[in-house]
Write a structure and sequence with these properties.
Elements lengths: L16 E2 L2 E2 L7 E5 L6 E6 L3 H17 L7 H17 L1 H12 L3 H24 L3 E3 L5 E9 L2 E5 L5 H15 L2 E5 L6 H12 L7 E3 L4 H10 L5 E5 L2 H13 L3 E5 L5 E4 L5 H13 L11 E5 L3 H12 L20 H16 L3 E4 L18 E4 L16 E7 L1 H10 L3 E2 L1 E5 L3 H10 L4 E4 L14 E2 L2 E2 L4 H6 L2 E9 L14
The protein binds nicotinamide-adenine-dinucleotide (NAD).
The site of nicotinamide-adenine-dinucleotide has 32 residues, from helix 7 and helix 8.
């Protein structure tokens, strides 16, 4: 196969966006950002450090304390969010092409991401206009109000798998709430986040409200978490990084919101519609080459339908077309990097060492046109023991592991036997079986006869080690708000409680 030439969207600025301008980082270092499908360098982006992060926090702190944005009316803030959505839609082709070049995902997936990002801005624009506080019962002649104030300055740290989408789940509600922020994208995929900074500036945000600093987690990220001027730390990424961040934030009792990894079971019971369940099991695990926090990489198949499911899934998986994301024929792109591919391959070896059998894939593609990218063939592993590491740990690649289960109770017990609890799917024709299962599944999202859908209106987040707090929905806005009780006494009178009795 010959590779099609890549698209050539306008590249974003390569310098941090601080206090309303793109300015070089203090040390002037650069990091080359390359396309995971070809290895080609896309842009040399500023490799900022702690001092740049501190400068950005100073700008956000000043902007917040000045109150121009924090005290703007919800209607005025909503108008800016609406403009952001409109500008994103105007530039949809550019954003999608940048995301595909940077992450390797097929253009159709990047286009979907962009549409959802615009939708999230519109959702929070509408929500903040209609979400007030509460009026409580109080003494006669007085009023007790619960008001929702912006939480302050937010540090946002995002991963590489959904760079723009994950950023939008933080930026849109934080801006709606009236917060100011510093955002650090993954050092592997900063392009669309830098382009978002341009869009936010064009939409008319006051200087200092939005800041973006590129660089490593150990320098820029750590500085953003430990800075005492930051009120909220909002992080999406791996569980181990999340634990480090939570520990650091705890030292100064800062609020944290954590969206972490998962090991998401897909339970297919004996009475399921096998044709649809097998088809959607492929979506569940091979979407974005399995690099999805909610990937349904762990199939728990009832023994009565196990063999048929494995046959159906494998026949289709063997035909998945690998390629560069800008080729319309491509169904699955590469992994994010050669180092990540080695990690995924390590899990394939570990599964076999634990006693599982390789049913499909496990190798890199033979096509010489794909050697420049971090590609891995769609892989199906069967007979995975439920008590090993592979059944519990996130693989984050195009690898489906299959365990044989006996009925609902066995499936539920195995599904819950992990430290994480992000998302689970259950396939059965019986609603009452699904409802009983959902009561027992310890996961933040449960899908019945589906896998993956989410909406701005519904909360997203995990039970157990998969996170703290929720993004999207009303809860996603509350992450960036503080409740303030305001007591108004319209009829003050002396209490006489102290020293008022004698002459
Ligand atoms: P990661 O934890 O390696 O990195 C995430 C971000 O944290 C990056 O920007 C990185 O630079 C930064 N970082 C690293 N060390 C840091 C430190 N000490 N202090 C501050 N910041 C630091 O994760 P990743 O490999 O980029 O992303 C993949 C992970 O993200 C997977 O585990 C996936 O499940 C998870 N994820 C979760 C969700 C969700 O909604 N729950 C969504 C997307 C991804």
């Amino acid at each position: 196969m010959n590779l099609r030439p890549p698209p050539t969207p306008r590249l974003p600025p390569a310098d941090p966006y601080i206090d309303g301008e793109f300015r070089p980082s203090a040390a002037g270092e650069r990091r080359e950002i390359s396309c995971p499908a070809t290895g080609r360098v896309l842009l040399a982006v500023a490799e900022a450090h702690a001092e740049d992060a501190q400068l950005a926090v100073s700008a956000a702190r000043r902007a917040f304390d000045e109150g121009k944005w924090a005290n703007a009316s919800p209607r005025a803030r909503a108008a800016v969010l609406e403009s952001v959505a409109t500008l994103l839609e105007r530039d949809a082709v550019r954003f999608a092409e940048l995301e595909t070049l940077d992450t390797g995902k097929p253009l159709a997936e990047s286009r979907d991401d962009l549409a959802q990002v615009a939708d999230v801005f519109r959702y929070y624009a509408a929500l903040v206009r209609s979400t007030g506080g509460e009026v409580n019962r109080a003494e006669e002649g007085s009023l007790s109000l619960t008001l929702l104030r912006p939480a302050g300055v937010v540090s946002m740290i995002t991963p590489w798998n959904y760079p723009l989408l994950q950023a939008s789940w933080k930026v849109a509600p934080a801006l709606a709430a009236g917060c100011c922020f510093v955002l650090k994208p993954s050092e592997l995929t900063p392009l669309t986040t830098m382009a978002l900074a341009e869009t936010l500036a064009e939409a008319g945000l006051p200087d200092g409200v939005a800041n973006v600093v590129t660089g490593a987690g150990s320098s820029v990220g750590a500085a953003l978490v430990s800075d005492p001027r930051v009120d909220v730390v909002s992080f999406t990424g791996g569980i181990e990084t999340g634990r480090v961040i939570a520990r650091t934030a705890a030292d100064r009792a800062a609020r944290v919101a954590l969206e972490l990894g998962g090991k998401n079971p897909n339970l297919i019971l004996a009475d399921a519609d096998l044709e649809v369940a097998a088809d959607r099991a492929l979506d569940a695990v091979f979407f974005h080459a399995g690099q999805v926090c909610s990937a349904g990489s762990r199939l728990l198949a009832d023994e009565k339908v196990h063999d048929e499911l494995v046959a159906r899934i494998s026949a289709r998986a063997a035909r998945i077309r690998l390629g560069v994301g800008w080729d319309p024929e491509t169904e699955m792109g590469p992994l994010i990097s050669a180092a990540h591919r080695e990690k995924v391959e390590g899990y394939v070896r570990l599964a076999l060492a634990e006693g599982a059998r390789l049913h499909l894939g496990g190798d890199r593609p033979a096509d010489p046109a794909l050697v420049g990218g971090a590609f891995l063939l769609p892989t199906v592993i069967v007979d995975l023991p439920s008590d090993g590491r592979v059944a519990r740990e996130e693989i984050f690649g195009p690898v489906l592991t299959v365990e044989r289960v006996r009925g609902l109770d066995d499936a539920l017990a195995r599904a819950n036997a992990t430290d994480t609890g992000l998302a689970a799917g259950i396939w059965t024709r019986e609603l009452r079986t699904a409802l009983r299962a959902a009561e027992r599944l310890r996961f933040g999202t449960v899908w019945w006869n589906d896998f993956h859908p989410y909406f701005p209106e519904a909360p997203w987040g995990g039970f157990k080690s998969s996170g703290v707090g929720r993004e999207l929905g009303r809860s996603g806005l509350r992450e960036y708000q503080e409740e303030q009780h305001l007591y108004l006494n319209a009829d003050p009178s002396p209490s006489g409680a102290f020293g008022g009795r004698g002459p």
